[in-house]
């Protein structure tokens, strides 16, 4: 996390732990009241799927986990800060019951308002065969 503001880095780590473990109360302490997660797939053009509020975002993580036959493994993570935004590049692999295995490179763009997270914008490189 070289070059990342320590307060922002701590808040991002705290949010990620809470978010991925469905701890809505703790995640809510890390985000603004108008927090949105712009999900990497979905019906909302051109965004994918806009999920509003931390409770709905945590529910989307639970829903995604229920579709998995093999848990997502996140590796090769790197973080870069630019003003109030942190760009996280990583690799995600796992397997969905409905569409099979995946192994993708991805980017999350986290935008902060002060020390609270305003948005998480997720991009996955979709690999076609």
Give the SSE layout:
Elements: H1 6-20, H2 24-30, E1 31-44, E2 48-52, H3 54-66, E3 68-82, E4 85-96, E5 100-113, E6 116-124
Parallel strand pairs: 1-6
Antiparallel strand pairs: 1-2, 3-4, 4-5, 5-6
Summarize the structure.
By secondary structure, the protein is α+β, with helices and mostly antiparallel strands. It has 3 helices and 6 strands. Strand 5 (100-113) and strand 6 (116-124) form a beta hairpin.
Could you name the ranges where pLDDT drops below 50 across 5 or more consecutive residues?
none
CATH architecture annotation name:
Roll
Structural class: alpha+beta
What summary fits the major beta sheet? 6 strands, mixed
**Strand element count:** 6
Structural domains: how many: 1
Give the topology string: H per helix, E per strand. Answer: HHEEHEEEE
The fold-level CATH name is Nuclear Transport Factor 2, Chain: A
Strand order of the largest sheet: 2-1-6-5-4-3
Radius of gyration using CA atoms only: 14 Å
Give the averaged pLDDT, no decimals: 92
- Strand-residue proportion: over 45%
The top-level CATH class is Alpha Beta
**Shape type:** globular
Fraction of residues in helices?
Answer: 25-40%
Number of helical stretches of at least 4 residues: 3
Distance between the termini: 34 Å
């Amino acid at each position: 996390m070289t070059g990342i503001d320590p307060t922002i880095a701590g808040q991002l780590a705290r949010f990620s732990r809470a978010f991925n473990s469905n701890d809505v109360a703790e995640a809510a302490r890390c985000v603004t009241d108008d927090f949105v997660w712009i999900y990497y797939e979905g019906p909302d053009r051109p965004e994918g799927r806009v999920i509003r509020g931390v409770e709905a975002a945590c529910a989307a993580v639970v829903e995604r986990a229920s579709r998995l036959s093999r848990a997502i493994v996140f590796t090769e993570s790197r973080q870069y800060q630019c003003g109030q935004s942190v760009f996280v590049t990583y690799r995600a692999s796992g397997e969905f019951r409905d569409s099979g295995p995946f192994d993708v490179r991805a980017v999350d763009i986290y935008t902060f308002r002060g020390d609270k997270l305003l948005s998480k914008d997720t991009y996955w490189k979709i690999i076609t065969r």
